Amino acid sequence: MKLILTAILLFTSLGYSKPTKSNDTKSIKQKNSRKISNANITANEYSLLIFGFGSLDKSNIDKNFKSAFEATEKFSDIKILSENDLPLVVSVLKALVLMDPLDPSRTAPQMLTESFHANNLIYKKAFKQLSAQDQKIMSDIITVFGAPNKKGNG
Amino acid sequence: MKQILIYIIILFSSISFSETYRLDSALNVRDENTDFVSTDDVVGHVSAGTEFEIVSSKTLRSGARALEIKIKKKGKGSNLSNDYIQTGPVYIYEGKNTKFTKISNAPGTEADVSYSKADCIGCSSENKKQMDKQPAVDLAKKYIQFQEEEANTPKISTSNAPTNILEQIKNYSNSTQVAKTIKLATSRIKRLSGAGKCYKETKNSLVAGGLLKSKPSDKYARNAANTLSKLGWVNLIKEPYSLNYTPETAPEGSVLVFESSSKCDPYTKNIMGLGCGDATIKLGDGSKTNGFKYASDYKSKLAITEGRTGHKYRLIGVMIKPNL
Q1: b vs e for B149-182, b when ≥16 Cβ sit within 10 Å of the residue's Cβ?
Q2: Global pTM?
Q3: Nearest chain B alpha carbon to A151
């Protein structure tokens, strides 16, 4: 009986499975790399961003400010963020909070204004994952995101 | 010399083809030509009878055309500040029901007119083919802008320029308007971190102190030097003065303008000169302002170029208003 069932399953799966065309492979590859192609950055750079932001904390931000700032600039090139990028967005927001005392002009968050408006939902989700203290600082930083001001930016 | 001659000819050709129109019904005037139509952009309206030239046009997603216009004469009942006309750009949206009449006698449209020999002295026929009306209009605009700026720059005799300008700077820094601007900026601005509105708040402080009659309508801080120049201010670090100021040594009350390589919206880029820039008021040496030397939308003891992100900014203007 088991043998018959296995045979039927095998048959049906063979019957319905499409032969893989080169186009399908291409579309699967495209789907998998969608995040990276939208990002205008390579997969390697993306991994470096995750690693870089993740390694920042209060004790080393002073020393690593420049690289954190450059990483923020790189991150700002990512046009469309997906759910998969949520951990990265959370670490970017944490980095902005850490950089804030050293960046009174708020140049780093300003660079993310476009990204914030294009990916508002992801940013909101990321915001909720911050600690209460970080959320308080971030709330003020968000005023910069609301800034595309018609009467005088900067 | 040859280049100047070419520019003049291009300018002449552009001007001779520019057409003046008269509006048949009232229209809102906007300071933006974005696809997101909202009343936020509306800065006033112009009534029927308003005469204008079309500087450029852009087709919006809705199908309407946003026309950048230069207003020659406002119609009776128009409500639009002259500052917007002077500093621009201003736009009207041309929809299905918008009507205006051509009133100038210029021949046809630019596209209709073929280039004559005089259009391009010394150019090959291949070059002539490549000539496009848009670069010509852009060049003409730049030339007109240059002429306007020059016309608006207060004439300070060049024979005794150093003495004269130093006197002007002293008078400016000691003026009641500057004192009032600094006092108000120090008390009004509480923030110690930016909020992305440096230029807006700088303009507010200048208006509150009486150094500007009304707020110019432009958006990016990096353009502040040009805008203020059009309103009669002078840039001390540019010709003819070319004084060697840094943010630290800039005169009290001067407006410091920085270009930047950091974007702040989709229309700016992380490239020097294409970022938003920064505009701030020099409060002085900090002795009278609790150590704060600069105020825009936040107060600071350090210039933006001295901060950790200072490499993203470059000083392009130290502006004062002469004859105070």
Answers
A1: eeeebeebeeeeeeeebeebbeebbebebbebbb
A2: 0.60
A3: B219
